[in-house]
TrEMBL record:
<feature type="domain" description="ABC transporter">
    <location>
        <begin position="21"/>
        <end position="244"/>
    </location>
</feature>
<dbReference type="GO" id="GO:0043190">
    <property type="term" value="C:ATP-binding cassette (ABC) transporter complex"/>
</dbReference>
<dbReference type="GO" id="GO:0005524">
    <property type="term" value="F:ATP binding"/>
</dbReference>
<comment type="similarity">
    <text>Belongs to the ABC transporter superfamily.</text>
</comment>
<dbReference type="InterPro" id="IPR050095">
    <property type="entry name" value="ECF_ABC_transporter_ATP-bd"/>
</dbReference>
<dbReference type="GO" id="GO:0042626">
    <property type="term" value="F:ATPase-coupled transmembrane transporter activity"/>
</dbReference>
<dbReference type="InterPro" id="IPR003593">
    <property type="entry name" value="AAA+_ATPase"/>
</dbReference>
<dbReference type="GO" id="GO:0016887">
    <property type="term" value="F:ATP hydrolysis activity"/>
</dbReference>
<keyword id="KW-0547">Nucleotide-binding</keyword>
<keyword id="KW-0067">ATP-binding</keyword>
<dbReference type="InterPro" id="IPR003439">
    <property type="entry name" value="ABC_transporter-like_ATP-bd"/>
</dbReference>
<dbReference type="Pfam" id="PF00005">
    <property type="entry name" value="ABC_tran"/>
</dbReference>
<dbReference type="InterPro" id="IPR027417">
    <property type="entry name" value="P-loop_NTPase"/>
</dbReference>
<keyword id="KW-0813">Transport</keyword>
<protein>
    <submittedName>
        <fullName>Tungstate transport system ATP-binding protein</fullName>
    </submittedName>
</protein>
Length: 250
């Protein structure tokens, strides 16, 4: 997948609900130190937004703030439905957070929390396992899986909830090329079904394959944002140009 226009999605795949999410002058500070500053950004439904920037730029913090794990200390975070932290969203971390249970039980747990009945839950778990190629691992302890298998499980568990938006924090950072390809295919599948994707990555090749839009952060500030094709062929800021050239950006 290149960094060009959005792929065609089935009619009705785009969902209306909690998106767009607007960040209006958002900041986040700890002990008086600003880690994110004056961020204004709109997350549009049905898009794949990739967040880029050097280490320490604030990419993970921005994802956690959007997801609701941390609260802005200034500015406003505004979901379209007016809620503080909508249920119809999910987040997958660089290091998967898995229960000390089987693969199938990990997928079933959030479905149970959502109030889905036992019979429907079993059917949904079976569909999810098959859909993401995890059926053979269904009864394996989740924490004994390989790193790639654990990340596939984390992605499948999120996908089982059919979130409107999925936040991904460096989802392939520790994976080999084969496992990375599987995760990218899962991302594109969920995107094609209407899930909005917001992902951070340090891998420019991956960003080019996945991004429809790009947000570039530097020192906790949003330096530029827009369509991926325009960013990769003609970014405006010297910081972004240096980053794309492989120079050290402080």
């Amino acid at each position: 997948m290149g960094a060009g226009p959005a792929r065609m999605r089935p009619e009705g795949a785009l969902r209306a609900g909690i998106l767009p999410l607007r960040l209006d002058g958002v900041g986040y500070a700890v002990a008086g130190r600003a880690l994110l500053s004056d961020l204004t950004l709109t997350l549009r439904p049905g898009r794949r937004l990739v967040i880029l920037g050097p280490n320490g730029a604030g990419k993970s913090l921005l994802l956690r703030l959007c997801h609701g794990l941390i609260q802005p200390t200034s500015g406003r975070r505004i979901w379209a439905d007016g809620s503080a932290r909508p249920a119809s969203q999910a987040m997958v971390f660089q290091r998967p957070v898995l229960l000390r249970r089987t693969v199938a039980a990990n997928i079933a747990f959030p479905l149970a929390l959502r109030g889905i009945g036992r019979a429907a839950r079993r059917e949904q778990v079976a569909r999810t396992l098959e859909r993401f190629g995890l059926t053979a691992l269904a009864h394996r302890p989740a924490r004994l899986l390989s790193g790639g298998e654990q990340q596939r499980l984390a992605m499948a568990r999120a996908g089982a909830m059919a979130p409107e938006v999925l936040f991904l924090d460096e989802p392939c950072a520790s994976l080999d090329p084969a496992a990375t390809r599987v995760i990218e295919e899962m991302i594109l599948t969920l995107s094609a079904e209407g899930t909005t994707i917001v992902a951070s990555t340090h891998d420019l090749g991956q960003a080019r394959r996945l991004a429809e839009d790009v947000a570039f952060l530097h020192r906790g500030r949003l330096v530029e944002a827009g369509p991926a094709a325009a960013f990769f062929t003609g970014c405006r800021s010297p910081e972004a140009r240096a980053f794309l050239n492989g120079d050290l950006v402080w």
